Structures are given as C-alpha cells and as structure tokens.
Amino acid sequence: MEWRSTVDEFLASIQTERGASVNTIMAYRNDLVQLINYLSATLPQDTPWSNVTTDILEAYVQRLTEQNYTASTIARKVAALKTFFHWLSQRGLVTEDPTLRLRSPRVEKRMPRLLSEEEVNRLFESASKILSPRSLRDRALLEVIYATGMRVSEAISLRLDDVDLEANTVRCAGRGARQRTIPLTAQASAALRAYLEHARGAMVNDTHTDFVFISPLGGKLTRQAVWQLTRQYAQEAGIEGELTPHTLRHSRAAHMLNSGEDIRRVQEWLGHANLATTQMYRPRQDKENKLVPASS
Predict the structure, then answer these.
(1) Spatial distance between the Cα atoms of 206 and 101, rounded to a whole number of angstroms
(2) CA distance linking residue 249 with residue 152, whole number of Å
(3) Could you identify which of 11, 88, 197, 261 might form a hypothetical disulfide with 256, taking C-beta atoms 3.0 to 4.6 angstroms apart as the criterion?
(4) Residue 1's pLDDT is what?
(5) What is the assigned CATH class of domain 2-101?
(6) Whole-prediction pTM value?
C-alpha cells in the first residue's frame, strides 16, 4: 500500500537526515499509522497522498476529538501530520500541503512540577533504605538523572566508556545526535562509584553488556522500569502527587538557576536547542517560600 510505504520512507528519512531518536520514530509511526487507519476506512485504498485534502484531515481531527483525546494529544498528532505533509511537499509527492490550513487545538501550557531540594534528598534516601545491588543501582540512577538533568532515555543509554569518575563527568548522546559532557555532583559521583564497584558486577551475571544501568537479568534497563521505580520511591518517601523521572530534570534546572548558575551553561547541560526552553525554569519564591516556576 502506497500510504504505508511512504510513511516508512519518511521515518527512514528523519532518522538518517535529522538523527531522530528511537522514541521519536515510534511516536511518529504511531500517529501516522493512526491516520492511515482512518484513511483506509474512509477512502479507496488506491487514493494517492495528493488527494488527501484539508477537509479530510479536519474530519480526522474531529474524529479524534469525538474519541476524547486531550487537546495536547491532538495537537501533537496535528504537528506530526504537518511535518509529514511538509516532507511530502518537499519531495513533490503532493502539489499542495493540506496541513497549511489545518488548525491545531489550543493547548493551555502547564508548568512542570518542581521538587524542593529536601524532597529530592528524601527520594534518594528512600532508594537506600535496603542495602542491595538493586538499591545501589537505583540510588545511582536517580542521582545521575538529577545531577545531570538527563532525560530517562539518555540515562539508560549511558555506556561505561561515557563515565569518567576521575573528572566527575558523563558523556551523553542527546536528541538529534547532539553530544554533551555534563559534570556530576560529588554526591552523584559517589553513588555511581558505589554502584559500579559493588553492585553492577553482581547484576551482569553471564551477559556481556557495556550499558551502565542494567536490569536484574543483565540487560539494558527500560524506560518503563525507571518510571516505576521513581514512583515507588516517591511513595515510600511520602512525596505526594504525580512524580516522574522527568520531574527530577525539571527540578534540577530550577535549582541550578535559583542558585545563580549561568543560564547558558544550564541550557548546555540539559541539551536544550532553544534558550527559551531553559528560561521557563527560572524560579521565584511564593508566599510560603517554596520554589515555583517563573511563569506560573
């Protein structure tokens, strides 16, 4: 089918030309396959992409609304359509881009949740209540994510050669194949050293892997496992509300800026392409002297 083969070509293109990550590729694939399923149910199978009009896409967006997708999810799917059809237009596969007039739902921008430094330390201590290879791994992982502001996908992709405990730095391959070297705090470095020296060897078993953070079976740790362990330790630490590994990244950015760190250094450490993204983490104090994002 032309629809699916063209989507495959698009995904291969953004992977090779833009260095899109595996997660980005999967997200685009899911969104575009959903569109194809809709087109298959409403149009003849041999309909070319050039016959997919703005009206058809608007009807598709309306269907998403009727299926109770949130505005932010629909906006993301519309953005994927715009990128895809722009690619089709550049390659002459459509004479007119139907997404140029396709409107995206308005999304109210919510500021990220921030933890206080005291809450961050409670989270770390929760991971150290029981002395075991897994707890040493989890403490090191959480410490590294917070200290470096890494995304989960970046942290679980760290390899042994990326770690320099003499210099207290880690090398990170970020989005779009952008590589950066990030300093570790003394606390994160100590936790990482303890894990590498006293726990990782026991977890590797007979497998051969150079990933830093590994599962009990000796393989690469998954994103889902990191989300689960973060929630588990947050509950044990008595930290209320929804908390994800990305909360640590948000909080680290705010804490660094609040302590007077240069905003461009923070931008570099976090791997933000746009300085405006980093600026949103500039915090202020509320009436109870708690950290809140600058734009809230």
Answers:
(1) 57
(2) 9
(3) 261
(4) 52
(5) mainly alpha
(6) 0.64
Tokens of 124: 């770390």
Q: Is pLDDT of 98 > 80? A: yes
Q: Which residue has the higher pLDDT, 20 or 24?
A: 24
pLDDT for 265 beyond 80: yes
Q: If you average pLDDT over every residue of the chain, what do you get?
A: 87
Every domain of the chain and the residues it spans:
2-101, 117-293
Q: Where are the alpha helices (DSSP H) in 43-169?
A: 54-66, 71-90, 117-126, 133-148, 152-155
Q: Which two tokens stand for residue 230?
A: 């973060």
Enter the CATH code of domain 117-293.
1.10.443.10
Rounded to whole angstroms, the Cα distance separating 139 from 179 reads 25
In this structure, what token pair is assigned to residue 167?
Answer: 């210099």
Instruction: Please report the pLDDT score of residue 193 as a whole number.
Output: 96
Token pair recorded at residue 149: 């502001």
Rounded Cα gap, residues 39 and 4, in angstroms: 11
Q: How many residues does the chain have?
A: 296
What confidence score (pLDDT) does residue 287 get?
37
In sequence order, the β-bridge partners of residue 170 are 163, 182
Which of 84, 18, 91, 3 has the alpha carbon at shortest distance from 48?
Answer: 3
Q: Where does the chain have alpha helices with state H? A: 2-18, 22-42, 54-66, 71-90, 117-126, 133-148, 152-155, 186-198, 200-204, 223-236, 245-258, 263-270, 275-279
The reply to whether 2-101 and 117-293 are identical in fold is no
pLDDT given for residue 290 in this prediction: 46
